[in-house]
Design brief:
Elements lengths: L1 E4 L4 E4 L4 H4 L11 H4 L4 H14 L3 E7 L11 E11 L5 E10 L1 H23 L3 E9 L5 E9 L1 H7 L9 H4 L6 H12 L3 E6 L6 E8 L7 E8 L1 H23 L3 E6 L9 H7 L3 H4 L13 H14 L3 E9 L3 E13 L5 E10 L1 H44 L4 H32 L8 E4 H18 L3 E5 L6 E4 L1 H17 L6 E9 L2 E8 L6 H4 L23 H11 L3 E5 L7 E8 L25 E5 L3 H13 L3 E5 L2 H11 L3 E4 L8 H9 L8 E6 L4 H10 L3 E4 L4 H16 L1
Parallel strand pairs: 16-18, 22-23, 22-24, 24-25, 25-26
Antiparallel strand pairs: 1-2, 1-5, 3-4, 4-5, 6-7, 6-10, 8-9, 9-10, 11-14, 12-13, 13-14, 15-17, 18-19, 19-21, 20-21
Helix pairs in contact: 12-13, 13-17, 14-15, 15-17, 19-20
Length: about 750
């Protein structure tokens, strides 16, 4: 207790103040308070003067730093209570100050504030939502609301509110009521923590909410922690959706999906495996699955599986597996180990996929590749065969240039060999046209016997060469058919030639024709090598040929019967083959529609004159960039009595023609500088070029090629290599048209 007396505030105090004054005692006794409390007087003086002036008491708290005996300042907090001291007349002469040491309380309060600040900083900095709330009940004692006493920004962000501290739920958001109030009040009532998963309607976030009772309190307040688990929830949903899709995929496809333990033993059921193989659960478990593997594949399959188990590597293998309802099929098995965090194998997961179709395709491709190689080898052989006698004949002619008989023999041989090569190339072109849908039929109405005569005439040399007998049987009515005579003759000739080639010398071949209602049946039968049952199914495939004894040469590419079948079907007919087996001969049957009402057919069999002098000096220009071809053609035409000139390309042809004024031009099409099409167009633009007869001489012989030459101005179209008879026929027709 202290007394400040008089106008100078002389200081009087009791013994209790000694500890507070420290080293200032006893010198402070009787001194002015302005000196004793100099460090705080600027704050205390206004209060002392107010008490003196008003006579009213006042209070204050001040920090006091007196020096101790050790010379160090003490940190002391005092609560001052000031009241007036009056004399006998009631005048205020001084002020009574009661000082209470509250240093410990201040320190405790400050420590509490520091702790509070640290707690606030900690709560605000964590990513998890934090909320301290108090349950509010209605008049009946039922929980109806709650007051948020403390909250951090994360909680506000999770639940979609702002400035929530100090507010009731009902003031903030309706979506935080309902089940939230029920959960919070339940924890406050039971004092048992609760955990729940909730989706906030405001933010759409999924929250893991944990509610705890406040320790030391009976009821009323709870602490709420919430964690945003939206990413985890999305991952779980995606995983569930993926698993469901995988389950549906497995159930809806023909895959067999299975699992084994770490040692490779089947320990649980696999419905897809049972559906795939037809095995029961008991048959499948353990190592029972191996019984579904083809006996010839089991050892290899088991070794592959044991190798994968031993090394912990993925398995990828193919083998034959029994499939319910289908028998032995090819399957591809793929399996991989599932490991834990330490890399230890927990189990194996695998799948079997049916690859039978792929295996068949691969086998077919290998077979096609083999047949292609055989075809190319045969083609090379067939192309070289005619060249060998031609080369030998040329050498013989050089050695005997004056031997007229030898020259005629060699020329006949060369013509036969060239015809053979042309036939071979024509077959190849026909196959190409058929596969590209470019082969066109030129149908006309004619008697069946005429087509058969052509076929017999074309095949007779080969039949006679092998000393076969050929019997031809025709129906009496000789029906009219509407066909492409060239192509149908080609069909029958191919069948007859095949019969001759696959029948030992001195065999018997029959060609029979019969009318059956609205169809005509054509049969070619032989007593030759026959056809095995497995070859009957493939005999009409490309490049397929029947194997012959090594001493017999079939001389073919394996495309003849493919052409036959295609041409017959293009005519709306069918072809089939029958054989009782090897050495039992074969029978090919073709059926074609006949014309219901016969019509008179006129066929022009004009033949070219064989006279050597059919040209009578007419002028012919031969245009070809192949100088040898142009030279040989010029010699042939000269021998026929024509006056001949030649040119090597379109430009030269126009120049020569301008001076020579030919009546006929034989022109190649594919030439450098200027091709035959452009040369023909420019020629037709000249006055004198209108009357020239233009013949295209080319290796291109399809219908679109003929149409293109007509559009360019050509009058005719000859295909290389042109036969002498065809050339003479074309020239004879030109001569007759000039005479008319």
């Amino acid at each position: 207790m202290l007394v400040l007396w008089g106008a100078d505030n002389w200081l009087l105090y009791n013994d209790a103040c000694r500890e507070v004054l420290g080293d200032k005692h006893p010198l402070s006794l009787g001194c002015s308070a302005t000196e004793v409390f100099a460090e705080a007087w600027d704050r205390l003086w206004p209060l002392v003067e107010r008490v003196k002036e008003t006579g009213e008491a006042a209070e204050a708290q001040e920090r006091y730093l007196p020096e101790g005996q050790d010379g160090q300042a003490k940190d002391i907090w005092l609560n001052f209570s000031f009241s007036p001291v009056r004399d006998e007349d009631g005048r205020i002469e001084g002020v009574l100050a009661v000082a209470q040491d509250v240093t410990e309380q201040v320190k405790a309060r400050r420590e509490l504030q520091r702790n509070e600040n640290r707690l606030r900083l900690l709560i605000d900095s964590i990513q998890e939502g934090f909320c301290l709330l108090e349950i509010i009940s209605d008049v009946e004692g039922k929980p109806c609301d709650y007051l948020i006493q403390r909250v951090n920004p994360a909680f506000e962000a999770h639940v979609g509110v702002r400035g929530a501290e100090g507010k009731r739920q009902s003031e903030l958001a309706e979506h935080l009521g309902g089940e939230w109030i029920q959960a919070f009040s339940g924890v406050a009532e039971t004092r048992q923590a609760k955990r729940m998963t909730a989706r906030c309607q405001q933010t759409g976030h999924w929250l893991d909410v944990r509610v705890f009772p406040v320790p030391g309190e009976r009821r009323g307040r709870v602490v709420v922690l919430c964690f945003d688990i939206t990413p985890q929830r999305a991952s779980q949903d995606a995983l569930r959706e993926s698993e469901e899709r995988f389950r549906l995929l497995v159930e809806s496809t023909a895959q067999a999906v299975w699992e084994t333990d770490a040692d490779g033993r089947v320990v649980q059921d696999s419905p897809s495996w049972r559906e795939y193989t037809g095995q029961s659960v008991e048959e499948w478990l353990g190592q029972g699955w191996l019984n579904a593997v083809h006996p010839e594949e089991r050892e290899r399959c088991l070794k592959n599986w044991q190798r994968a188990l031993h090394h912990g590597e993925k398995l990828d293998a193919e083998y034959r597996l029994w499939r319910k309802g289908e028998g032995w099929t090819w399957t591809q098995v793929q399996a991989a180990p599932l490991r834990d965090g330490d890399g230890h194998i927990l189990k194996w997961v695998g799948m079997n996929h049916d690859v039978t179709y792929r295996k068949r395709v691969e086998e077919s491709l290998r077979e096609n590749d083999r047949r292609k190689n055989e075809f190319l080898a045969t083609l090379a052989h067939e192309l070289r065969n005619p060249l060998a006698p031609i080369r030998s004949g040329l050498a013989a002619m050089k050695q005997n240039p004056t031997d007229r008989e030898l020259q005629e023999e060699v020329c006949d041989m060369m013509e036969r060999q060239v015809d053979q090569m042309v036939h071979l190339i024509d077959d190849l072109l026909d196959v190409s046209r058929i596969t590209r849908g470019k082969l066109q039929l030129r149908k006309e109405r004619l008697r069946l016997g005429e087509v058969i005569d052509r076929a017999v005439e074309a095949s007779r040399p080969i039949v006679e060469e092998a000393s076969h007998s050929l019997q031809v049987s025709l129906p009496e009515e000789n029906p009219t058919i509407e066909v492409d005579p060239t192509r149908l003759a080609q069909v029958l000739a191919n069948l007859l030639v095949n019969a001759a080639k696959y029948t030992p010398a001195g065999g018997k071949i029959q060609l029979r024709a019969a009318v059956e209602g609205q169809t005509v049946r054509l049969e070619v039968e032989d007593d030759g090598v026959g056809i095995s049952p497995e070859m009957l199914e493939r005999i009409f495939e490309m490049f397929v040929q029947i194997d012959m004894p090594h001493h017999q040469d079939t001389r073919g590419l394996g495309i003849g019967l493919t052409l036959v079948k295609s041409i017959v079907e293009m005519h709306g007919g069918t072809i089939r083959v029958h054989s009782d087996g090897p050495d039992k001969g074969s029978l090919f049957t073709v059926q074609l529609p006949v014309v219901a009402r016969e019509a008179k057919t006129a066929v022009d069999h004009r033949e070219a004159s064989a006279a050597d002098e059919q040209g009578h000096g007419q002028r012919i220009l031969v245009v070809d960039d192949n100088a040898s071809a142009a030279r040989m053609m010029s010699i042939v035409l000269g021998n026929l009595g024509y006056t001949v000139r030649s040119a090597g390309d379109g430009f030269e042809a126009l120049q020569v023609a301008e001076q020579f004024r030919p009546q006929i031009i034989l022109m190649d099409l594919g030439m450098p500088e200027m091709d035959g099409y452009e040369a023909a167009r420019q020629l037709r633009e000249m006055d004198w070029g209108q009357e020239v007869y233009l013949l295209a001489l080319t290796g291109w012989g399809q219908e679109e090629d003929r149409q293109r030459t007509r559009e360019a101005g050509f009058d005719g179209h000859l295909i290389k290599p042109v036969k002498s008879a065809d050339l003479r026929a074309a020239l004879a027709e030109i001569q007759e048209s000039h005479e008319r």
